[in-house]
Amino acid sequence: xxxxxxxxxxxxxxxxxxxxxxxxxxxxxxxxxxxxxxxxxxxxxxxxxxxxxxxxxxxxxxxxxxxxxxxxxxxxxxxxxxxxxxxxxxxxxxxxxxxxxxxxxxxxxxxxxxxxxxxxxxxxxxxxxxxxxxxxxxxxxxxxxxxxxxxxxxxxxxxxxxxxxxxxxxxxxxxxxxxxxxxxxxxxxxxxxxxxxxxxxxxxxxxxxxxxxxxxxxxxxxxxxxxxxxxxxxxxxxxxxxxxxxxxxxxxxxxxxxxxxxxxxxxxxxxxxxxxxxxxxxxxxxxxxxxxxxxxxxxxxxxxxxxxxxxxxxxxxxxxxxxxxxxxxxxxxxxxxxxxxxxxxxxxxxxxxxxxxxxxxxxxxxxxxxxxxxxxxxxxxxxxxxxxxxxxxxxxxxxxxxxxxxxxxxxxxxxxxxxxxxxxxxxxxxxxxxxxxxxxxxxxxxxxxxxxxxxxxxxxxxxxxxxxxxxxxxxxxxxxxxxxxxxxxxxxxxxxxxxxxxxxxxxxxxx
Length: 511
Ligand SMILES: *Cc1c(COP(=O)(O)O)cnc(C)c1O
Fold this sequence. Notes:
The strands form 3 sheets. The chain has a 7-stranded mixed beta sheet, sandwiched between helices. It has a 3-stranded antiparallel beta sheet with strand order 10-12-11, with helices on one face. α7 (148-166) packs across α8 (182-189). The longest helix has 37 residues, at 358-394. A hairpin with an 8-residue loop joins β11 and β12 (451-454). It is of the alpha/beta class. It folds into 2 domains: 96-319 and 331-369, Aspartate Aminotransferase, domain 2; 374-502, Aspartate Aminotransferase, domain 1, CATH 3.90.1150. The chain has helices at 17-20, 40-43, 61-73, 95-102, 104-107, 119-136, 148-166, 182-189, 207-213, 236-245, 278-281, 358-394, 415-421, 425-434, 462-476, 480-484, 497-502; strands at residues 140-142, 172-176, 193-197, 218-224, 249-253, 273-275, 296-298, 310-316, 335-341, 410-413, 441-442, 451-454. Helix content is 35%, strand content 11%. The structure holds pyridoxal-5'-phosphate.
């Protein structure tokens, strides 16, 4: 029986800020009031006033700073740790994107300003639309959706409007069994029945099962390509042809675009619509429930149904008359004017306030423009190279059931370890935290038993990948009892994850 390692837990103060509060402590002192004081009751009707001051914690400035800085060190981030979280593409976010998005000329704008004063912002958004269309090989774009899942929902509403216009009643959306959970959820939210299509043992769409499920009720086939197994669907063309032959549409879940930027375009391999996850592919800040974005691109025939407004560009002759050039405006003085177009009679309407989560879109724009077409292609090549290097290093200890090559990520299985040594995917994931690694995605996709889904991303060095591999080996040699209790060094070890998600305790209540 191994001795369990106790007392290794992080000793950081994890009291809530309310528990640290001491009456009368202050972080700021206001100067004496130099105007006549007036009671609040004279300014506001009494029914609008609270019964008392808000129950705010009272602390000194150093206590506040220490509290929040210490809390921040309990977190893991790409800036502090290797974060091989498959499917999520946790790659380094260049700080220049942050600086660009924070420029006062962008950050201080108000959406109610007149369009004349928003020309720079609208130009950026227009160019981002164009760039995303080019990367996807699709004709039109909406920047509005607030996340990948929201992009899925928006595109399915676009599809529903399109079929409604054709007078076709199509009720089904097909989703492969290894899809992300948001796919069937979005289908249901958009009012469709979600029907599962099997994948083969190799991890590809089972064409026989697809044939069996395709009928004239199928509106959309949602496919993730490269798939959640990190594999490029070899029958993509055949899948798209079958769906199109029945009048249906192909939706590409673009969460894995990081593997194919500048190499292969969804519009060229049969997609009619797709979303992007700028927080994955284009290095947006990621996680923590902050704002995201989920722009969608669609083919020409679906464009009329996109949410409004879309940003449009018009030629405007702003140069005006010049001395000696009385009638004509010279070509060089002609320029563009950008405006928000609400005049789309077939639009599904708004899915988000104003122009979407612009701050996230600006970062994506900065990232894309920094790298350019060749740079984006190199990003994907390196993401795929890193993933294959890691796959080849770990596969003899954590077998990868679906092949010995991958795209940007791969799914290993701990089922042999579980059988022989009682070491489960969860034990490895939790133990990695003790060594300063964020855990990979585990138990997803559901088609792989004891799944460990690893995505190194292109921003990691060979040294980091090697060090990670060494730690993985070491863990698989450790005592199962030690692993079952891991992590041993974090403030919280193994919370009840379902309860933490369903009944989160977010506020402190004084008795
Ligand atoms: C992340 C992800 C989504 C959902 O995207 P969000 O931006 O988190 O809403 C959908 N599908 C796949 C395959 C993903 O990895």
